[in-house]
C-alpha cells in the first residue's frame, strides 16, 4: 500500500496553483518551491493574485474532503474603503455573484471587520497609495469555494478586494509560516467525512 504524503504551503502572490504553466507567461508554479513527489496535487486552489494557505497531497481522495461544505476556509481580506454594518450583514447573509455566467447566491458566512491590520508578511508589491483613500481588513469564513468567490462577494457590497490571504482551512492555520514555505504534515487534521 502506498503511503500518501501531505503538505501545507504559503502560496505567494503571482504564483500559479498548479505544477505546469500552460499560459507560457513568466509566472511561478508550485514545483518552483519544493521537490514534491510525483502525483502531488493542489487542493482548493488560490488564484494568481491571492496568497496564503494551500494544501497539497498525493491522495486524490483528500480533495473531496477538503472541498466539502463541512470544512471552513477563512480569509483575511483588505478592501477598498470602510464597509459599514449593512455591508457586513449582507456578506453574512449571502450575496448574488456571477458564477459560470449565471447568478449565484452565496451561502451564509461569517464576516467581520478586523479592528487592526493582521500580522502578515509584506505582499511584495505595492497594492496602492494611501492617497487613494482608506482601506480596511475583514475576516471572511466560507464553506464553499466558487471561482474568485471572496473577491466577487466584497465587490457585490461595494468594496473591491485589494489583498486576499487564506489563513485557515479547517483546523489548520497559516500561523507563522513565511511566504513560499512548504511544510510536510502527517495529515490535514480532523476533516469531516
What does this protein look like?
There is one protein chain. The protein is mainly β and 193 residues long. It has two domains: 6-68 and 173-185, Alpha-Beta Plaits, CATH 3.30.70; 73-169, 2-Layer Sandwich (Alpha-Beta Plaits). It has helices at residues 61-66, 85-93, 149-156, and strands at 6-11, 15-16, 28-29, 41-43, 51-57, 73-80, 96-99, 102-105, 110-113, 135-142, 161-169, 172-173, 182-185.
- The CATH topology of the largest domain is Alpha-Beta Plaits
Give me the number of helical elements.
3
CATH architecture of the largest domain: 2-Layer Sandwich
**Principal-axes shape call:** globular
Q: CATH superfamily of the largest domain, called what?
A: Alpha-L RNA-binding motif
How would you characterize the largest beta sheet?
Answer: 9 strands, mixed
Helix percentage range: 10-25%
Average of the residue pLDDT scores: 89
How many domains? The number is: 2
Q: C-alpha Rg, in Å?
A: 17 Å
Structural class, by secondary structure, is mainly beta
Residues in β-strands, percent:
25-35%
Number of strands: 13
* Secondary-structure element series: EEEEEHEHEEEEHEEE
Distance between the termini: 22 Å
Low-confidence runs: none
Report the CATH C-level class of the largest domain: Alpha Beta
